[in-house]
Specification:
about 350 residues, alpha/beta, Rossmann fold, Dihydrodipicolinate Reductase, domain 2, 3 domains, seven-stranded mixed β-sheet, six-stranded mixed β-sheet, 11 helices, about 20% strand, globular, binds NADP nicotinamide-adenine-dinucleotide phosphate
Length: about 350
């Protein structure tokens, strides 16, 4: 890969695409030429962040001509249709969607956990689900110390995880309830045909908690949701360990940004909360905020917009021989999506730069 890259963002106007643009500018990613694409309705708009600026172009084969890195964040179907086209034109695809995550030829990478897997890519690299990323960042260092046997995770996922329209839906429902003083939001929402046609969530999300993610898909045969299956399968793939048993319940909460997770871990070997705090505090990308006496622990509202994953409430699970409970919070748009994808790209480009330097010697 060249020193400065030609980069395309597919899905640049979405929640993830806009954050990608912001972080590429913030981290001064070495860009030669930037191309932006979205659906037809956005063609002609201009996006700007810091020193980076671009006009939205139609998604065609030509968009990928000469591109080194193609970030895909326009949904599964767009990735399935276009990622191989980008690879054909010589680009490395970093895919934020679920289209290829479990394909055996596609590395699924969180750089702090399994950057090594990048060596085996064949043009497409997947970035994991926004709930899986913070989970494996916490599990990996604890596993290296005490061998994880079983994990029970319950997620509390923000609405931004469902895209821009979902944020608007939460805001509108909240306003309806507060400004218009509609007491029975459930009645109002389910009896408005227009609202139900355009609705993202199957139940009101304002002042509610919905145990179904994603909201649009049918439940799987055994009544798990797709998101729960993703967390379970992706964790096994990234940890490269099929023997770790994972059980997941994924829940949407009326929070703008930041996914929280309650995690129960059973280990094969002893580990104290103090040791876990020490290990996690030293692990890249993690910050421990855990002082019960001072009521200090991470919350989504406090930690949204930050790069790290935050861990607290680390305590003994009294029901098993070696077990811990903990609470984690990570910004689903940053580390859960855009930042992780950019870190993958940085890894590829710095590796390439190092290779170039050693060739010149
Ligand atoms: N949000 C998260 O926390 C998160 C985290 C991890 C992964 N992801 C994944 O990332 C992807 C994007 O999520 P998002 O939350 O950013 O969604 P979003 O806010 O709904 O944005 C979707 C983007 O895709 C574009 N798009 C839609 N249909 C298209 C088409 N046919 N051709 C080209 N572009 C098209 C949209 O363009 P227009 O604006 O023109 O419609 C927009 O730029 C999804 O696969 C999601 O599962 C999201």
């Amino acid at each position: 890969m060249k020193h400065k890259c030609n980069v395309v963002i597919v899905g640049a106007t979405g929640v993830v695409g806009l954050e990608l643009l912001k972080i590429l500018a913030q981290r001064r990613f070495p860009i030669n030429e930037l191309r932006l694409t979205a659906s037809d309705r956005s063609i002609g708009r201009t996006l700007k962040s810091g020193h980076l600026k671009g006009n939205l172009q139609r998604l065609t084969e030509e968009v990928f001509d000469g591109v080194d890195i193609a970030f895909f964040c326009a949904g599964n179907s767009v990735s399935r249709e276009w990622a191989h086209v980008a690879v054909k034109y010589g680009a490395v695809v970093i895919d934020k969607t679920g289209a290829f995550r479990m394909d055996k030829d596609v590395p699924l990478v969180v750089p702090e956990v399994n950057a090594d897997a990048l060596r085996y890519h064949k043009g497409i690299i997947s970035s994991p689900n926004c709930s899986t990323i913070p989970l494996v960042m916490v599990l990996k260092p604890l596993h290296d110390y005490a061998r994880v046997k079983r994990v029970i995770v319950s997620t509390y996922q923000s609405v931004s995880g469902a895209g821009l329209k979902a944020i608007t839906e939460m805001e509108q429902q909240t306003l309806m309830r507060l400004k218009l003083q509609i007491p029975n939001l459930k009645f109002q929402i389910s009896h408005s045909p227009r609202a139900s046609r355009n609705r993202i969530f199957p139940y009101p999300i304002a002042f509610n908690v919905i145990p179904q993610i994603p909201q649009s898909n049918a439940f799987c045969a055994d009544d798990y949701t797709d998101e729960e299956v993703k967390v379970i399968n992706e964790t096994g793939k990234i940890m490269n360990n099929k023997s770790i048993r994972v059980s997941a319940t994924c829940v949407r909460v009326p929070v703008y940004h930041g996914h929280s997770e309650s995690v129960n871990i059973e280990f094969a070997r002893p580990i104290t909360p103090a040791k876990a705090r020490q290990i996690l505090a030293k692990s890249p990308g993690l910050k421990v905020i855990d002082n019960p006496a001072r009521q200090l622990y991470p919350t989504a509202a406090e930690e949204a917009g930050k790069d790290d994953v935050f861990v607290g409430r680390i305590r003994v699970d009294r029901t098993v021989k070696h077990g811990l409970n903990l609470w984690l919070v990570g910004d689903n748009i940053r580390k859960g999506a855009a930042l992780n994808a950019i870190q993958i790209a940085e890894y590829l480009t710095t590796k390439a730069q190092r290779a170039l330097r050693s060739q010149r010697k």
